[in-house]
Amino acid sequence: MCEVQLDFENQMFIELLAQDGMVVLARGLGLERLFLKFLKLYSDHHQLVLVLNTSPAHQGQYMEELLREKVDHLPRSITNEVSVKERETVYQRGGVVFITSRILVVDLLRGQCPVAGVSGLLIWSAHKVTETSSEAFIIRLFRESSKSGFVKAFSDSPEQFMSGFCQLERVMRCLFLRHLYLWPRFHATVSSSLATHKPEVVELRQQLSPAMTAIQMAVLDLIKSCISELKTSNPAVVGDG
Asked: What molecular function terms (GO) are annotated for this protein (predicted)?
Protein backbone atom coordinates (compact mmCIF):
# COMPACT_ATOMS: atom_id res chain seq x y z
CA MET A 1 0.00 0.00 0.00
CA CYS A 2 1.15 3.52 -0.80
CA GLU A 3 2.95 5.42 1.93
CA VAL A 4 1.56 8.83 0.88
CA GLN A 5 -1.47 9.89 2.92
CA LEU A 6 -3.93 12.12 1.11
CA ASP A 7 -5.81 14.92 2.84
CA PHE A 8 -9.19 13.21 2.70
CA GLU A 9 -7.68 10.01 4.14
CA ASN A 10 -6.35 11.87 7.14
CA GLN A 11 -9.68 13.65 7.61
CA MET A 12 -11.60 10.37 7.46
CA PHE A 13 -9.32 8.83 10.07
CA ILE A 14 -9.59 11.79 12.44
CA GLU A 15 -13.39 11.97 12.18
CA LEU A 16 -13.96 8.28 12.77
CA LEU A 17 -11.42 8.17 15.57
CA ALA A 18 -13.08 11.06 17.38
CA GLN A 19 -16.65 9.79 17.04
CA ASP A 20 -17.96 6.26 16.51
CA GLY A 21 -19.85 5.74 13.27
CA MET A 22 -19.97 4.06 9.91
CA VAL A 23 -17.81 5.34 7.08
CA VAL A 24 -19.01 4.68 3.53
CA LEU A 25 -16.53 5.33 0.74
CA ALA A 26 -16.88 5.24 -3.00
CA ARG A 27 -15.25 2.11 -4.32
CA GLY A 28 -11.55 2.57 -5.02
CA LEU A 29 -10.90 5.40 -2.55
CA GLY A 30 -8.74 3.22 -0.32
CA LEU A 31 -10.94 1.73 2.39
CA GLU A 32 -8.24 -0.87 3.08
CA ARG A 33 -5.73 1.90 3.80
CA LEU A 34 -8.10 3.50 6.31
CA PHE A 35 -8.82 0.16 7.97
CA LEU A 36 -5.10 -0.59 8.21
CA LYS A 37 -4.49 2.65 10.10
CA PHE A 38 -6.98 1.59 12.76
CA LEU A 39 -5.44 -1.88 12.98
CA LYS A 40 -2.04 -0.31 13.51
CA LEU A 41 -3.42 2.09 16.12
CA TYR A 42 -5.07 -0.67 18.17
CA SER A 43 -2.22 -3.20 17.92
CA ASP A 44 -1.47 -2.74 21.59
CA HIS A 45 -1.63 -5.34 24.36
CA HIS A 46 -3.24 -2.80 26.71
CA GLN A 47 -6.55 -3.11 24.85
CA LEU A 48 -8.58 -5.82 23.15
CA VAL A 49 -10.15 -4.97 19.79
CA LEU A 50 -12.20 -7.57 17.90
CA VAL A 51 -12.43 -7.46 14.10
CA LEU A 52 -15.42 -8.99 12.30
CA ASN A 53 -16.23 -9.85 8.68
CA THR A 54 -12.68 -9.93 7.29
CA SER A 55 -11.72 -12.77 4.96
CA PRO A 56 -8.50 -14.81 5.36
CA ALA A 57 -7.13 -13.07 2.26
CA HIS A 58 -7.71 -9.63 3.80
CA GLN A 59 -6.20 -10.76 7.08
CA GLY A 60 -3.06 -11.99 5.34
CA GLN A 61 -2.73 -8.72 3.47
CA TYR A 62 -3.05 -6.67 6.65
CA MET A 63 -0.57 -8.87 8.47
CA GLU A 64 2.01 -8.34 5.71
CA GLU A 65 1.55 -4.58 5.87
CA LEU A 66 1.82 -4.49 9.66
CA LEU A 67 4.95 -6.64 9.51
CA ARG A 68 6.43 -4.28 6.95
CA GLU A 69 5.70 -1.35 9.25
CA LYS A 70 7.37 -3.24 12.10
CA VAL A 71 4.36 -3.39 14.42
CA ASP A 72 5.40 -5.27 17.56
CA HIS A 73 2.05 -6.57 18.81
CA LEU A 74 0.70 -8.21 15.65
CA PRO A 75 -2.98 -9.22 15.36
CA ARG A 76 -4.05 -12.79 16.04
CA SER A 77 -6.65 -14.79 14.15
CA ILE A 78 -9.22 -17.05 15.79
CA THR A 79 -10.81 -19.78 13.66
CA ASN A 80 -12.46 -23.11 14.41
CA GLU A 81 -8.97 -24.64 14.56
CA VAL A 82 -8.18 -22.68 17.74
CA SER A 83 -9.19 -24.48 20.94
CA VAL A 84 -11.24 -22.90 23.71
CA LYS A 85 -8.23 -22.66 26.01
CA GLU A 86 -6.12 -21.06 23.29
CA ARG A 87 -8.88 -18.55 22.59
CA GLU A 88 -8.97 -17.49 26.22
CA THR A 89 -5.20 -16.94 26.06
CA VAL A 90 -5.59 -14.80 22.93
CA TYR A 91 -8.24 -12.66 24.64
CA GLN A 92 -6.02 -12.16 27.67
CA ARG A 93 -3.09 -11.24 25.46
CA GLY A 94 -5.00 -8.24 24.09
CA GLY A 95 -4.39 -6.35 20.88
CA VAL A 96 -6.26 -6.84 17.61
CA VAL A 97 -8.04 -10.16 17.10
CA PHE A 98 -9.57 -11.32 13.82
CA ILE A 99 -12.44 -13.63 14.72
CA THR A 100 -15.40 -15.27 13.02
CA SER A 101 -18.85 -14.18 14.13
CA ARG A 102 -19.97 -17.71 14.93
CA ILE A 103 -17.10 -18.33 17.35
CA LEU A 104 -17.45 -14.95 19.01
CA VAL A 105 -21.17 -15.49 19.65
CA VAL A 106 -20.38 -18.75 21.45
CA ASP A 107 -17.56 -17.22 23.49
CA LEU A 108 -19.70 -14.24 24.51
CA LEU A 109 -22.62 -16.38 25.60
CA ARG A 110 -20.37 -18.75 27.56
CA GLY A 111 -18.44 -15.89 29.14
CA GLN A 112 -15.12 -17.03 27.68
CA CYS A 113 -14.63 -13.67 26.00
CA PRO A 114 -14.44 -10.93 28.66
CA VAL A 115 -16.90 -8.36 27.31
CA ALA A 116 -15.86 -5.85 29.96
CA GLY A 117 -12.29 -6.12 28.72
CA VAL A 118 -13.14 -5.53 25.05
CA SER A 119 -12.15 -2.01 24.03
CA GLY A 120 -14.16 -2.03 20.82
CA LEU A 121 -15.29 -3.65 17.59
CA LEU A 122 -14.18 -3.01 14.02
CA ILE A 123 -16.81 -4.13 11.50
CA TRP A 124 -15.65 -4.75 7.94
CA SER A 125 -18.23 -4.84 5.09
CA ALA A 126 -20.82 -3.18 7.30
CA HIS A 127 -23.42 -3.31 4.51
CA LYS A 128 -23.74 -7.07 5.18
CA VAL A 129 -25.04 -6.54 8.71
CA THR A 130 -28.77 -7.30 9.00
CA GLU A 131 -31.26 -7.73 11.82
CA THR A 132 -30.80 -11.51 11.75
CA SER A 133 -27.03 -11.58 11.29
CA SER A 134 -24.58 -12.79 13.91
CA GLU A 135 -22.80 -9.45 13.80
CA ALA A 136 -25.94 -7.59 14.88
CA PHE A 137 -26.39 -10.00 17.79
CA ILE A 138 -22.74 -9.56 18.81
CA ILE A 139 -23.00 -5.78 18.78
CA ARG A 140 -26.17 -5.93 20.86
CA LEU A 141 -24.47 -8.14 23.47
CA PHE A 142 -21.46 -5.83 23.45
CA ARG A 143 -23.53 -2.67 23.89
CA GLU A 144 -25.55 -4.20 26.72
CA SER A 145 -22.38 -4.99 28.68
CA SER A 146 -20.12 -2.12 27.65
CA LYS A 147 -21.17 1.51 27.47
CA SER A 148 -17.67 2.88 26.89
CA GLY A 149 -16.48 0.50 24.16
CA PHE A 150 -16.39 1.74 20.58
CA VAL A 151 -17.93 0.39 17.38
CA LYS A 152 -16.52 1.52 14.05
CA ALA A 153 -17.95 0.19 10.78
CA PHE A 154 -16.55 0.32 7.25
CA SER A 155 -18.01 -0.14 3.78
CA ASP A 156 -17.08 0.71 0.20
CA SER A 157 -20.32 -0.56 -1.34
CA PRO A 158 -22.70 2.41 -1.19
CA GLU A 159 -25.02 0.77 -3.72
CA GLN A 160 -25.85 -1.91 -1.14
CA PHE A 161 -27.62 0.69 1.01
CA MET A 162 -30.02 1.60 -1.82
CA SER A 163 -31.80 -1.75 -1.94
CA GLY A 164 -35.00 -2.14 0.03
CA PHE A 165 -36.86 0.36 2.18
CA CYS A 166 -34.70 2.41 4.60
CA GLN A 167 -31.82 -0.03 4.22
CA LEU A 168 -29.25 2.46 5.49
CA GLU A 169 -31.34 3.22 8.57
CA ARG A 170 -31.75 -0.48 9.33
CA VAL A 171 -28.02 -1.11 9.10
CA MET A 172 -27.22 1.83 11.34
CA ARG A 173 -29.75 0.57 13.88
CA CYS A 174 -28.20 -2.91 13.83
CA LEU A 175 -24.78 -1.36 14.38
CA PHE A 176 -26.06 0.81 17.26
CA LEU A 177 -24.48 3.82 15.54
CA ARG A 178 -25.79 7.34 15.03
CA HIS A 179 -23.05 8.95 12.95
CA LEU A 180 -22.61 8.32 9.25
CA TYR A 181 -19.58 9.51 7.28
CA LEU A 182 -20.16 9.62 3.52
CA TRP A 183 -17.19 10.06 1.19
CA PRO A 184 -18.22 10.08 -2.48
CA ARG A 185 -15.79 10.93 -5.25
CA PHE A 186 -17.38 14.34 -5.71
CA HIS A 187 -16.66 15.30 -2.09
CA ALA A 188 -14.71 18.57 -2.18
CA THR A 189 -11.76 17.23 -0.17
CA VAL A 190 -11.61 14.03 -2.21
CA SER A 191 -11.73 15.89 -5.52
CA SER A 192 -8.99 18.33 -4.53
CA SER A 193 -6.76 15.57 -3.15
CA LEU A 194 -7.09 13.41 -6.27
CA ALA A 195 -6.56 16.43 -8.52
CA THR A 196 -3.13 17.04 -7.00
CA HIS A 197 -2.14 13.36 -7.32
CA LYS A 198 -3.22 12.49 -10.84
CA PRO A 199 -2.35 9.00 -12.07
CA GLU A 200 0.49 8.60 -14.55
CA VAL A 201 -0.69 6.92 -17.74
CA VAL A 202 1.90 5.12 -19.84
CA GLU A 203 0.88 3.75 -23.23
CA LEU A 204 2.94 0.90 -24.64
CA ARG A 205 2.59 -0.20 -28.27
CA GLN A 206 3.99 -3.51 -29.43
CA GLN A 207 4.81 -3.89 -33.09
CA LEU A 208 3.12 -6.93 -34.62
CA SER A 209 5.29 -9.63 -36.10
CA PRO A 210 4.62 -10.78 -39.71
CA ALA A 211 2.90 -13.92 -38.39
CA MET A 212 0.70 -11.89 -36.01
CA THR A 213 -0.22 -9.52 -38.85
CA ALA A 214 -1.20 -12.47 -41.04
CA ILE A 215 -3.40 -13.85 -38.24
CA GLN A 216 -5.04 -10.46 -37.75
CA MET A 217 -5.86 -10.16 -41.46
CA ALA A 218 -7.24 -13.71 -41.53
CA VAL A 219 -9.53 -12.97 -38.59
CA LEU A 220 -10.78 -9.79 -40.27
CA ASP A 221 -11.52 -11.75 -43.45
CA LEU A 222 -13.49 -14.30 -41.44
CA ILE A 223 -15.53 -11.55 -39.76
CA LYS A 224 -16.30 -9.95 -43.11
CA SER A 225 -17.39 -13.28 -44.55
CA CYS A 226 -19.68 -13.98 -41.60
CA ILE A 227 -21.31 -10.54 -41.81
CA SER A 228 -21.78 -10.92 -45.55
CA GLU A 229 -23.45 -14.31 -45.08
CA LEU A 230 -25.74 -12.92 -42.37
CA LYS A 231 -26.81 -10.06 -44.64
CA THR A 232 -27.59 -12.50 -47.43
CA SER A 233 -29.62 -14.91 -45.29
CA ASN A 234 -31.47 -12.34 -43.18
CA PRO A 235 -31.21 -8.68 -44.26
CA ALA A 236 -33.57 -7.56 -41.46
CA VAL A 237 -31.14 -8.69 -38.74
CA VAL A 238 -27.99 -7.03 -40.08
CA GLY A 239 -28.30 -3.47 -41.39
CA ASP A 240 -26.19 -1.74 -43.96
CA GLY A 241 -23.87 -0.37 -41.21
From this structure: damaged DNA binding; single-stranded DNA binding; single-stranded DNA endodeoxyribonuclease activity
